[in-house]
Write a sequence for this structure.
């Protein structure tokens, strides 16, 4: 099962690391405690929309871009874990023909 908070945390962490910034720098800019930001990045805490807005602002990244990336990752994961469907209708036709 896909956990939205985990995907969101991964996107935020990857962007922070891409920028070469520390948790301390981003937490200070976002006015969020270092521990809480760390928990959000690890997918352990659900971030409110206000908190996400602050983190995105500190990263200089639009919230819509973060959500788009999370949505893409969720879609990929869903496609990889989609259940295999069996051709039930075809089996019924074969059974009734016998």
């Amino acid at each position: 099962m896909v956990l939205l908070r985990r995907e969101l945390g991964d996107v935020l962490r990857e962007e922070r690391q891409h920028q070469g910034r520390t948790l301390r720098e981003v937490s200070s800019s976002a006015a969020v405690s270092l521990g809480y930001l760390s928990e959000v990045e690890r997918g352990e805490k659900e971030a409110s929309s206000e908190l996400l807005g602050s983190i995105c602002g500190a990263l200089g990244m639009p919230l819509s871009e973060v959500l788009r990336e999370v949505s893409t990752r969720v879609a990929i994961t869903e496609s990889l874990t989609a259940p295999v469907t069996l051709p039930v209708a075809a089996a019924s036709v074969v059974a009734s023909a016998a």
Notes: Residues 4-97 form a domain with the 434 Repressor (Amino-terminal Domain) fold (CATH 1.10.260.40). The chain has a mean pLDDT of 89. Helices lie at 4-18, 23-30, 34-41, 49-59, 63-80, 88-97.
